[in-house]
Amino acid sequence: MDVLKEKRKISEELRPFFRPKSIAVIGASHKEGSPGNVIFHNLIANYREGRLKARVYGVNIKGGELFGEKLYKSILDVPEAVEHAIIVIPAKFVPDAIEECGKKGVKVATIISGGFSEVGNFELERKVLENARKYGIRIIGPNGLGIFDAYSGVDTLFIPEKKETDEGLKINMPRPKAGFISFLSQSGALGDAVLDYMYGENLGISKFISWGNKIDVDESEMLLYLMDDETTRVVIMYIEAIRKEGQKLVIVGKEFSKKKPIVVLKGGVTAAGARATWSHTASLAGNVRIYEAAFREMGALIAENLLELLDMAKALSLQPPAKGRNIGIVTNGGGPGILVSDFAEKAGLRVPKLSKETIEELKKYVNEGIIPPIATFPNPIDLSGSATDESYVVATETLLQDPSIDLVIVLALHHPPTITKDMPRKMIKVIKDYQKPTLVIDMGSAEVSVWVRKQFDDAGIPSYPLPERAIYGAKALVEYGMWLKKNGVLEKHLEEWHPAI
Amino acid sequence: MDVLKEKRKISEELRPFFRPKSIAVIGASHKEGSPGNVIFHNLIANYREGRLKARVYGVNIKGGELFGEKLYKSILDVPEAVEHAIIVIPAKFVPDAIEECGKKGVKVATIISGGFSEVGNFELERKVLENARKYGIRIIGPNGLGIFDAYSGVDTLFIPEKKETDEGLKINMPRPKAGFISFLSQSGALGDAVLDYMYGENLGISKFISWGNKIDVDESEMLLYLMDDETTRVVIMYIEAIRKEGQKLVIVGKEFSKKKPIVVLKGGVTAAGARATWSHTASLAGNVRIYEAAFREMGALIAENLLELLDMAKALSLQPPAKGRNIGIVTNGGGPGILVSDFAEKAGLRVPKLSKETIEELKKYVNEGIIPPIATFPNPIDLSGSATDESYVVATETLLQDPSIDLVIVLALHHPPTITKDMPRKMIKVIKDYQKPTLVIDMGSAEVSVWVRKQFDDAGIPSYPLPERAIYGAKALVEYGMWLKKNGVLEKHLEEWHPAI
Fold first, then answer.
1. Which residue in B has a C-alpha nearest to residue A304's C-alpha?
2. Cα dist. B472→A338, B290, B312, B352 in Å?
3. CA–CA separation, A379 vs A341, rounded Å?
4. Cis peptide leading into residue A380 (ω within 30°)
5. Closest CA to A419 of A440, A439, A435
6. How many Cβ atoms sit within 10 Å of the Cβ of residue A364?
7. pLDDT digits (tens, 9 = 90+) for A77-113
8. Contact B335 A192 (CB under 8 A)
9. Residue B75: which region, alpha, beta or left (left: phi > 0; alpha: psi -120 to 50)?
10. A284: pLDDT confidence band, cut at 50, 70 and 90?
11. Can you give the pLDDT at residue A65?
12. How far is B363 from chain A (nearest CA, A)?
């Protein structure tokens, strides 16, 4: 296949999912908290706030009015052209709705409704696809959450945003901040849960796509679309099964990986998990080894669990790949520094002894009184509990300049009084002067800890609250760099790389 | 050795560290933010608030007054008997201070001051110990953070509680809530960091002990003390090296493990980590296999990283050990349920098919309309996104009653509108009716998610924000149960077990 040609075609075909000129919600509902109610509400609000550029029309067979907007009895009554139809009506009515969409000239449809193959209604699902094909309508769904685009305001998440608790109304279904991770999920529930988790972890999202039964648009097409998407710097995928066109996914995936990294979490990798997968999506989870080989062939990194998936994505979305496996560590906490070294080596990274030149340079700073005299330099550079902001700046810059160090981990515990509020700002400045992959750890979860990490995250330097989690990020940058190198595109990739923030 | 006899002796000897009748801070300092200032301030505050029962005296060679309290020029001038001396003066003065403590009849001393063997001053350290032995004073330290006891108010953490940020004063060094985990750390920096982390994770602590150079009281003695400590349900340890009496630790550890679990994280398990350990505490990290064998012999669980250490501790501090490896899972999220199954089996747990009787029972609830008809029962019981609070209650109770299920994991995603604020309360009630180990997962980190987890945690049912983290907890309960069984004490242990909350 000609990947570039296919990409041009797909870019145009899928564009209305994310940047439609107009939207119709078929099944806009008066019933508070129902999917058709929540989706119409959120899209209207996004439009009124100016975030969503598309005009939004409500369609309800009974007509009437909702949120101050007229409801049309049929999409055919909508006075303007509609590019993107969002369908939230009972399954049995969906084939006819698609037929009407076709007549209206709709280009894409996100089908939220469930009740198709997942409950045995294969014929109904086939009919939906047949009608869509007749009119060239591309489909995401059915039986999924649809789409969340943090930039364009397209948002079909139908879980109510707030919920009553014993302590009053609280945020139930948050939206993460806009960022550079795009997430393709074969499970809707996992999608909600991960978005909720990303919100609290200060992880930024670009696009979220929940496939549901995935009868039309699939992984390889979505990768083609995201290949040129400026706000997508990494794609994470939750996959239970690839039912068709696995070969195409490998080919597209490999081209994609040369530009941007992919991280995959596979569900159903054990006997019990595979059994559950069968009940969940009637998918054969298949031979794990075959999936792994395919993922590796396409250059995707494989995450062992959700924490690793998201910690890897955080690093990959903000930092360049590493040229080698050598990690330099600087810390003001002896014990934590030892743990970073242990976790790094266990993950297949190297924590080499520092070069003579680097040690000389560090000793110079000791003589100048900038690094405390009790500091030790075995890598980790242990600046000791008396380290100041300035100790960090000079030690980190020394590591950034050392050509034998491929990636830097700054383990800056905020607790000692000698570390001030200026530390993040000063460190960000020096780290930004180099394009060497750098990660920050500040352990803790109370206010100062959260504040320090936010400074780094918001400046594009990924931070983590535990050593092992930074190592997930470091490993991802190293493994991705090694894959690019093996495929002869590392140098080109690094030349073209620029900070997202 | 006669462990019980030794325990009685140690219980009396170490008691004044945690429950002293009186305290003297030798080195109470006027310099704001200095260790001697912070410690004296916090102890006085705890005393005035009534949490600390011990009268607190300040000692400063210059005399004067601090926080409205008279400062004595020598501990010998303090008008009453002193049980516990906290020493925060330059290293060179410490031997004489111990001598004076001896004359005063002080029973225990926590030496915060650094500047001993860790910087080569072996002779000074030897002198401290010699003076202490002369008077029978027991010592924790020097060069550590000392002690934090969430119940008695003894608190020698010297990091200032608040720190200036660009957004004003924020919590810098929080104290976790009172709970049932005691933490022994060979690294002070790690101690601060872990306490900070525990605070945000809603993990409860009983006692924290930072050994520093550990010249006197050691791990095995502290285990003897904690064996009968009512608020200690699990001990977690960060160990770089055991320099002496490893055999004693194994003997005591094994007796301890029959009553309460221990979880160990060893620093310096790789070449790089071991090199850093040598720089950090001049310890030979030693052969990892030997340590592992010793930890296993004493029944300690080995954590691979900090997340695992704390997630294991959370489960062990609140739930009884499991009788077997069979896990039952109930969820309203298909994908997340698959992941729990995968992670469980990868961790060596079993997710068996449900018994005919259990499936019949569940089908009865489907017929009664309590469990949705599209629910599936392969284990995980996938109640589907339409599950209600009541679906959860009946499905969970069915698993709790099933004799072939040893541990239950409730993966209750709060997002769907059918899950209400009553779910935690109703679930807590049914889970509390059984003493079968049960863990809860609610994925997310926004408000409702945090609120739901807090309800369960505060009721003594450990909750986790990610599936893999609950599996760390489950694995700990199973491995500990299997160790107790192997040693013939599981039944007795379970008979005596009662909920901490």
1. B343
2. 22, 24, 6, 19
3. 8
4. yes
5. A440
6. 13
7. 999 999 999 999 999 999 999 999 999 999 999 999 9
8. no
9. alpha
10. low
11. 97
12. 16
CB contact under 8 A, A189 and B420: no
- How do residues B308-363 score in pLDDT, each as one tens digit? 999 999 999 999 999 999 999 999 999 999 999 999 999 999 999 999 999 999 99
pLDDT of residue B281: 63
Per residue in A109-167, pLDDT (tens digit) is: 999 999 999 889 999 999 999 999 999 999 999 999 999 999 999 999 999 999 999 99
Q: What residues of A are in contact with residue B280 (Cβ under 8 Å)?
A: 334-335, 337-338, 376, 382
Evaluate whether B82 touches B135 at the Cβ level (below 8 Å).
no
Closest chain A residue to B326, measured at CA: A272
Mutation for A interface: B338, B384, B428, most A CBs within 10 A: B338
Q: Give the DSSP H/E element, type plus range, for residue B111.
A: strand B108-111
pLDDT reported for residue B309: 98
Proportion of chain B above pLDDT 70, given as a percent:
98
Residue of chain B with shortest Cα separation from A34 = B417
Name the residue in chain A with its Cα closest to that of B164. Answer: A421
Once rounded to an integer, what is the mean pLDDT over residues B150-166? 96
Give the nearest partner residue to B165 out of A277, A341, A451, using CB atoms: A451
d(CA B490, CA B365): 34
Paired residues of B407 in beta bridges: B327
Q: Which residues of A touch B413 (CB under 8 A)?
A: 189, 192-193
> What is the rounded average pLDDT of the residues A314-334?
98
Sheet strands (E) in A361-470: 381-382, 407-411, 438-441, 463-464
**Which of A333, A342, A447 comes nearest B193 by C-beta?**
A333
Q: What is the pLDDT of residues B77-112, one digit of tens each?
A: 999 999 999 999 999 999 999 999 999 999 999 999
Instruction: Output the pLDDT for position A241.
Output: 86
Domains and CATH numbers, chain A: 3-315 (3.40.50.261), 321-496 (3.40.50.261)
The DSSP secondary structure of A37-67, one letter per residue, reads HHHHHHHHHHHHTTS--SEEEEE-TT--EET
Q: What is the mean pLDDT of chain A?
A: 96
Q: Would the CB atoms of A280 and B165 count as touching at under 8 Å?
A: no
**Residue A244 structure tokens:** 């068709």
Q: Do A196 and B446 touch (CB under 8 A)?
A: yes
CB contact under 8 A, A199 and B467: no
- Decide if A307 and B200 are in contact by the 8 Å CB cutoff: no
With an 8 Å Cβ cutoff, are A306 and B447 in contact?
Answer: no
Q: How far is B103 from chain A (nearest CA, A)?
A: 34
Name chain A contacts of B447, Cβ cutoff 8 Å.
165, 170-172
Tell me which chain A residues have a C-beta less than 8 angstroms from the C-beta of B339.
190, 265, 267, 273, 305-306
Q: Which of B342, B458, B332, B335 is nearest to B396 (CA)?
A: B332
Q: Give the β-pairing of A55-59 and A463-464.
A: unpaired
Interface contact flag, B342 A238, Cβ < 8 Å? no
Residue A282 — pLDDT band, cuts 50, 70, 90?
low
The band of A276, judged by pLDDT with boundaries at 50, 70 and 90, is confident
Please name the residues in contact with A37: beta carbons below 8 A apart, sequence gap of 6 or more: A28, A29, A30, A31, A66
Contact at CB, A200 and B446, closer than 8 angstroms: yes
Contact A297, A254 (CB under 8 A): yes
Q: Are B272 and A167 a contacting pair at CB < 8 A?
A: no
- pLDDT tens for B465-499 read 999 999 999 999 999 999 999 999 999 999 999 99
